[in-house]
Amino acid sequence: MKDADIKRLFYVHIFCIVSIILTTFIPSFFLEDFSVLETHLTWLCICSMCVAIINVVLYLQVKPNPSSKRSSIFHKISRLLKSCVYFFISCLLFHAIIVLYGAPLIELMLETFLFAVILSTFTTLPCLCLLGPNIKAWLRVFTRNGATSIWDNSLQITTMSSVIGAWLGAFPIPLDWERPWQSGQRKGCSYEAGDHRIQAPSAGEKHRLYPVTFTTIWNNQRVTHQIFLALETGWLWCPLQITQPSHPPASFLKYTILT
Amino acid sequence: MLKALVLLFLAWVCFLFYAGIGLFTSGFLLTRLELTNHSSCQELPGKGTLVGSGRGRRVVFMGDDTWEGLFPGAFSQAFFFPSFNVKDLHTVDNGILEHLYPTMDRDDWDLLIAHFLGVDHCGHKHGPHHPEMAKKLNQMDQMLQTLVEQLENDTLLVVAGDHGMTETGDHGGDSKPEVMAALFLYSPLPLFPGASLKDPEVVPQVNLVPTLALLLGLPIPFGNIGEVMVDLFSGEGDTQPLATALAQASAYHLNAQQVSRFLHAYSLAAQDLPPEELQHLQNLFSSASSEYEQLLDQLKTGEVREADIQALISQLRLFLRGARTACTETWARFRPARMIGGTILLASTCLLCLITSRLTSSPDFPFHCLLLRAVVWGLAGAVLLAGGLMAAGIGLEPSLLCAGSAATSLIAFLWALKSRESSSMTVFLPGPLPILVLLFLRSAALFSDSFVVAEAWAAPFLLRSLSLFLVAQLHWEGRLLVGVSTACLSSPTASLARREGPRALGLLVGLLLCVRLSILFHRCPEETPVCQSSPWLAPLATMAGGQAKNLWYGACLGTLGVLVLAVRFWLRRCGNLNSPAPPVLFVRWGLPLMALGTAAHWALASGTDEAPPRLQALVSGAVVGLPRAVLALAAIGLGLLLWQPVTVLVKTGASSSNHIIVPFVGPPASQADLDYVVPQIYRRMQEALRGKLARGGGQTPLALAAYGLGSVYSAAVVTALALLAFPLLLLHTERISLAFLILFLQSFLLLQLLATAVGTPAGSPGPFSVPWLAISAWALTATQTFYSTGHQPVFPAIHWNAAFVGFTEGHGSSPVLPALLVGANTFASHLLFSVGCPLLLLWPFVCEGQGSTKRKKTLASGTEVGGEKEEEPLMEMRLRDSPHHFNAALLQLGLKYLFILGVQVLACVLAASILRRHLMVWKVFAPKFIFEAVGFVVSSLGLLLGVALVMWVDRAVGSWFKQLILSQER
């Protein structure tokens, strides 16, 4: 049972990663002037949509948790509505947290909100798919001994790595690498040697932290997320390989890794 | 014995840090000091200056009286006006204008110097965009117009500014608007070749001296390394290019001769110019000289081409510029040995902090002999080193001596530690992984100029992450929401845990909000179009609108009121406000008085110009007197606090074991309620009567109630912080008081959150310790507050106006008092947070008391619990119960805090020494290091004061107990 779960989990993650990679390349065939860095807003929308759809479809297909006994149509619709509301609330919450973290309140509101949306698709949506709109279950999963199945484990790892990735994404913001995805408004240094005007580039000119473009954060978040996803699937795949010959120590190892 | 050791030990560790910083500084800042020495040789009276070499010429001076001290007796006639008061815009300028035109008309001078100061002072006082500035500039324009009209044909008018100003009107840094100033030359005769006005040539200021000297027919001053401005030597105008070129060449040649002489003399005196560079320059000069001689010979025969002269000029120019570059490069040099020594000393002291903080918890650790041995060794090392230095003929340098003694005592301590317990020498890492990551990020960020500049954003970022992590970890461990999963809400502990969750979340959100709001007071390191400082940092006096001004003033008043009320409220809540002790009386009456004084001072200071002339003297007197009065009040309050720090109210026989239990809130409403309460009151009275009767006859143990004993330490620290905060508030501009309010609120929320997260050490008598996480968060908050009170670690951003609070007329010659005032302004957050550091240890104990009172309340109002007797919370008396652990915990707290700060200083030191050839070293890394080092010194002093205060209170509590027991026995 567990081995089959691991296999399914692996395919789900492979699909997710492939979809993220495809969203960076496919739209350039349909849209003109599409690039991840220049038209980041479009890309953010497309990416979050794709990931959301793939997540929902895959989890519905795989159905890790068999649905509850009462499966009337009314119950299903109410669950769906509830899920949508929860998703929206989580977007708003993420938005608030990002603003509390120093993002401008009024400027770049759309960027901030899209960033919150994409963060929600990576954290809240899997929770919704796996656990349903049940806050108590979510809170239970994110405790030390809360994970009961391999799906819960994967949920923990993906959510945390997404949040950590987004957090890491803030680090390149102050750097002055003169990249367009940084802030674009930085001036170069005026370093004219051989003239009287030998003048150090003034520190104030170089830096503009505000407004923060969240493309940066998102870029990094994506990369780290992928790395974490890859690591995680590798992590989960290894014991699967080991368990093929089914040695007792190997299964013990698998058990320790998974819990 | 033990108690004094905590302080002594901390002081010793602080000394070790100071020695490291001092040694590094003596190797690192050498450059700047020498540079100022060198550049001052351009102004040496009689030797290097234009004025000095102008003896024999008639020099007339009018303006700034600083010149009198610089060039005594150099002027044939002088009109000096007092210039020190920055607030005074008109004395100097009007004085000059009065004397300028009459002197112009006379014919008894060769050089007339008029030093106007009004625009500079106006910039400092009002900034460049104030109506006053427009008036001042108009006045200067008119002066120039009149001057130009009156100018005679044989006179050259030179108008030069010595610096520009930033958007705030200050200067002293090296940003473009500060360094760029105008130079305007005017002569009634057409003298200058046509140059485009759109893109004027940039001329270094040093070039003015040789040009003017040659124009006046004076020798160029000896120490000059400037280059003549060639446009002013244009023969007879554009008509004769050859003559012009010749004149220019001769001017250049004179200049080059002087510079070559200076280089020669300098290389004899100091060996720091690289020989090959010197040789190259000499070759260049000799070849150019010989060419010049050749040219002069050719001139006699009459065949000179202009191109030859131009080639010669360019060669001479090359020499002059090469000489200047060589000089400026050489004057930036370091002493690597000292820098490495200082770094090693700092690093090993950090290590020592780490090891010892781990060892303090073991009960029988022999600190006395270890410390004594280390101190004795240190003294011996210092004496030996002094002897060695004297013998070697090198002068005694305090930084070297300190470093020597610090190193020997450090080695002695570590050696003794190692010989005593070899197993304990393993390197301990400070705390769990997240703290390591945080420390690493924090120190790695100091190596990048971008991150140093962005630290105002990075520190709050890390603080938010830390607090979020704290709550997330709480949830991860399942302590945040226990009641949800178990779903049995009947037992009181579960309901308590349920309350804990939302409480922690609320604290977190409040903390995040505070941190977010504090960014509103951000100041840019430099004023640029891209980065605008918060407009709220400007003093209210510069605001134009009356309505807005009044509103802001109201907000500031509200802040003061809230601060005073908050302190009172907190003390009342802890039960310390009822005590008859003098500090409490001071909190009741003195604090509002201080707030009143502060408010009055702000009102007067922001409206001085609007005061009616009759009241001017009164207002100026009050502006001087009020800050001093507030300072005196604060000093009195601190004195009272030190005199009787025990703020406890004792009542005999007041405590009764069973409380009246009421099932309703507020006054009784129905007959049923009364039926419930009245029998209880009756029983209570009966008991009281019986007690009285019994006391008359036999002997019963006396019940004593001491209100506020559980928070006696923290009450003293909070009072001290409030008393410190008011003078510091006064040194800042009015609206920063809001930032101070946020500061207090934020640290309160942080303490509460940490106490919730750490959990109360209920029941454990054992070693108390403050987790690394709490201390890192505290240090981060201190850094964040430094920025959020409108400071930046660069020199132009220092609030110089703080030196004039209470001293509007200036300070005379002594630099100590203004330095103290400006220092207190700049390092206010370091001071407050380090004095408040013991609160980290005390707060969980205080919160324990609150938790239990709350529990009691819920019990009383909700369910009836019969028979189960609640234990009274011991709170801070837990610490007193085990004095050894208390001292050890204080020492450990201090060492941990010093470690965190020390690691920051170490990172700054490493960054400054590794990147000393970096483009930004004088702009970013060196100022950051200086600010961090001074901040460390202030913090460690504050820490010592805070720990000393807690120990002083502890001693007082001890004697208070003794007295109490004595009086009870009698």
Protein architecture, described:
The complex is a heterodimer of chains A (259) and B (970). Chain A has one domain (1-64, 81-176, 218-241). Chain A contains ten helices and no strands. Chain A has helices spanning 2-25, 27-30, 40-62, 73-100, 109-131, 135-141, 150-168, 203-206, 214-243, 248-258. In chain A, α1 runs antiparallel to α9, α4 (73-100) crosses α5 (109-131) and α9 (214-243) packs antiparallel against α10. The longest helix of chain A has 30 residues, at 214-243. Chain A starts with a helix and ends with a helix. The model of chain A is unreliable at 179-224 and 233-259 (pLDDT under 50). In chain B, 65% of the residues lie in helices and 3% in strands. Chain B contains 33 helices and seven strands. Chain B has helices spanning 2-28, 30-40, 50-53, 66-70, 91-105, 118-126, 131-150, 176-179, 208-216, 241-269, 275-301, 306-330, 336-359, 367-392, 398-420, 433-445, 449-453, 455-476, 482-486, 492-518, 546-574, 582-606, 616-643, 671-697, 712-731, 736-758, 772-788, 816-826, 828-835, 838-861, 877-881, 883-914, 921-969, and strands at 59-64, 77-81, 111-115, 157-160, 183-186, 649-652, 704-707. In chain B, α1 (2-28) packs parallel to α32 (883-914), α26 crosses α30 (838-861) and α27 crosses α32. The relative contact order of chain B is 0.09. The chains are: A mainly alpha (259), B mainly alpha (970). At the A-B interface, α4, α6 and α8 of A face α17, α18 and α20 of B.
